[in-house]
Design a protein that fits this description.
heterodimer; A: 389 residues; alpha/beta; Aspartate Aminotransferase, domain 1; B: 277 residues; Arc Repressor Mutant, subunit A; 3-stranded antiparallel sheet; 8 strands
Chain lengths: 389, 277
């Protein structure tokens, strides 16, 4: 059975061009870039080429890019660096809908005596800007707000937030893991001090990420050891994956505009027809400001894990905010923060697309999904009266 | 990704006995849409011989909830009420070839729906909600349910309780309360001893305590010497064991048995005797 992959906010396929580029560095060209001999030391150039490509995608200077092992490390490093840089300031601000890489790290720091504010969002997942302004004080060391939400795709007003923070001279980090490669980003005009990105969300391999650190920003390394990355991130470079990330960023830079249009066209078709063909359905999140590839839909009266496993029978991959899929009993913290009723959270399904999806795949989902929902609703003790109407 | 057995998948993809019996002789409803799973069970019961002639279910929930519900209906059809009531959540899980431990609460939901339906058939009224003491506010789990499930399934940790009842799996505020309940069930409270009035354990408590002492105190020591122990039976105060592995034929066998007896006397009750079965 052919896999139909609509879970691209979880991870993406490695682009064939990327794989072609990295293969020699996983086999014959295994040197250490820190070596004196050409066999190893010669790889330094390849790393710098990759750095330039990553920088170009977000409008940065190459020396502002630090390679990390993943998005989570980039997030943790940014926050830790902020805390170490301003030890006299004891307050951090983030949101209630962050990825665990920020959310849980801020909680972790709060347990160690820092003060943390978790900003609320409204029912569409939009940031409460009033609460944001009120949360800031002279004690605030850093604000960390995601560029776009992984579950709903909702995009935050990073520029507006950044302007306010720049005026108040507060450090600003954004977790842009879901945004880089899907949205045009230019840090030359975007007032952020640090920005995290992750390779495997944009068709590079897993295990590689990067942190953008604006020139002039105080920085303390989190991983301590050798002199790699100009002393900002110790550890022998993941040469192959760095080269892969460079190639993936190059592809993204080249195709961004075209892809955005393609993805939103497919996504909108999927969404429109699911709304039309399944009763008692709702879209979660602000549809005005949203990633082009993401839709988060709640199917009332049915449970997400059941939907996913039925889809799985057809080779269709998606994800859910339901408690049963989380490993804990807690449903999605993002949808809860938005005040989505629990009943709708349990039946929430996220489809996230990539450039490799086709219209035929959308049609397949549209053919199967209404059938699955109908069958599961027939199993369910709820919603019968409404369905009969 | 859950590691579901073939049978769970089969019962999830092709559930048996889906639906609702019109004018049922018994109906039981448990769970709620807010909690993430709910089951409505309807039964047809032959009043002459109290036999369940038909059973149907409707379930809102994950794959294992649907499979557990369907398995329950298969298990109870054709059984008398008394026979059906002997089916515990473990039987439902076993019928499905096992459930992931985090999903055991799905089997408990099946058992609860069965009890509710039979109570409904017998005309028993469920005590009003507010009379029950709710321990876990997130999933509305009562102390009564936690105690019952803990004893029926020999659960000794908060994690077990969460897997079987969901209690403690939400905000976590009730975890200390669950710990206190478990302590109350499984450990002898240090009541001030009056001479002539030895602490009295219920049979269930005694059995659980003996198992616990063997697992935690005795087995590790025997295993350190390459031996092992099997608990064969408990008959009143008589504990029948088998010595295994390197203990078999060991010259120190008698001493070992005496040692085990002393340990159980010390930690469970003075009246315990140990025999090799």
């Amino acid at each position: 059975m052919k896999t139909v992959y609509f879970d691209n906010n979880a991870t993406t396929k490695i682009a064939p061009e990327v794989f072609g580029e990295i293969k020699p560095y996983l086999t014959d060209l295994y040197g250490n870039p820190s070596s004196m001999h050409t066999f190893g030391g010669g790889l330094r150039n390849k790393i710098e080429e990759a750095r330039a490509k990553v920088a170009e995608l977000i409008g940065a200077e190459p020396e502002e890019i630090v390679f990390m092992s993943c998005g989570t490390e980039s997030d943790n490093t940014a926050l830790m660096s902020a805390v170490e840089s301003y030890p006299q300031k004891r307050h951090m601000v983030t949101t209630r809908v962050e990825h665990p890489a920020v959310f849980n790290f801020v909680k972790h720091l709060a347990r160690r005596g820092l003060r943390a504010t978790f900003l609320p969002v409204d029912s569409s997942g939009r940031l409460d800007m009033d609460a944001f302004s009120k949360a800031l004080d002279d004690d605030t060391s850093v604000v960390s707000i995601m560029y776009a939400n992984n579950e709903t795709g909702v995009i935050f007003p990073i520029e507006e937030i950044g302007e306010i923070l720049r005026e108040r001279k507060i450090l600003f980090h954004t977790d842009a893991v879901q945004a880089v490669g899907k949205l045009p980003i230019d840090v030359k005009r975007l007032p952020v001090d640090m920005l995290s990105l992750s390779g495997h969300k944009l068709h590079a391999p897993k295990g590689i990420g990067a942190l953008y650190v604006r020139k002039g920003t105080r920085f303390y390394p989190y991983i301590i050891g050798g002199h790699q990355e100009n002393g900002r991130r110790a550890g022998t470079e993941n040469v192959a994956s760095i080269i892969g990330l460079g190639k993936a960023c190059e592809l993204a830079s080249k195709n961004l505009e075209k892809e955005t249009a393609y993805l939103s066209k497919l996504r909108n078709k999927l969404e429109r027809n699911l709304l039309k063909n399944c009763p008692d359905v709702r879209i979660n999140g602000d549809t005005e400001h949203r990633l082009p590839n993401t839709t988060n839909i709640s199917f009332e009266y049915v449970e997400g894990e059941a939907i996913l496993l039925r889809l799985n029978e057809y080779g269709i991959c998606a994800s859910s905010g339901s408690a049963c899929t989380s490993g804990s009993l807690e449903p999605s913290h993002v949808l809860r923060a938005m005040g989505i009723p629990f009943t709708a959270i349990h039946g929430s399904i996220r489809f996230s697309l990539s450039r490799y999806n086709t219209e035929a795949e959308i049609d397949k989902v549209l053919e199967i999904m209404p059938k699955i929902i109908k069958e599961l609703r027939e199993l369910s003790p709820f919603g019968k009266e409404k369905i009969k109407k | 990704m859950w590691d579901y057995t073939k049978k769970v998948k089969e019962f999830f993809l092709h559930p048996k006995n889906v639906g609702e019996i019109k004018n049922p002789d018994a109906a039981g409803e448990v769970g709620s849409m807010i909690c993430g799973d709910a089951l409505r069970l309807t039964l047809k019961i032959d009043r002459k011989n109290n036999t369940i002639t038909d059973a149907k279910f409707q379930t809102f929930g994950c794959a294992s909830a649907i499979a557990s519900s369907s398995a329950l209906t298969e298990l109870i059809k054709g059984k008398t009420i008394d026979e059906a009531l002997k089916i515990g959540n473990q039987d439902i899980a076993e019928y499905l070839g096992g459930l992931p431990k985090e999903k055991m609460h799905c089997s408990v939901m099946g058992r609860e729906a069965l009890e509710a339906a039979i109570a409904n058939f017998r005309g028993e009224k469920k005590p009003p909600e507010r009379e029950e003491k709710i321990v876990c506010e997130c999933f509305e789990v009562s102390e009564e349910k936690i105690r019952k499930v803990a004893i029926e399934n020999h659960l000794t940790t908060v994690e077990d309780i969460t897997n079987f009842t969901k209690a403690g799996g939400g905000c976590g505020n009730c975890i200390p309360a669950i710990e206190a309940i478990l302590k109350d069930i499984w450990f002898v409270k240090p009541v001030p001893e009056k001479p002539g009035a030895p602490k009295k354990l219920t049979n269930l408590q005694k059995i659980a305590l003996i198992q616990d002492v063997i697992e935690k105190e005795i087995r590790p020591r025997l295993q350190a010497d390459g031996g092992d122990i099997e608990l064969i039976d408990i008959d009143g105060n008589k504990v029948i064991i088998g010595l295994r592995a390197m203990c078999v034929g060991c010259l120190m066998g008698d001493v070992t048995v005496k040692g085990i007896e002393n340990k159980l006397k010390e930690l469970v009750s003075e009246d315990i005797t140990v025999e090799v079965g």
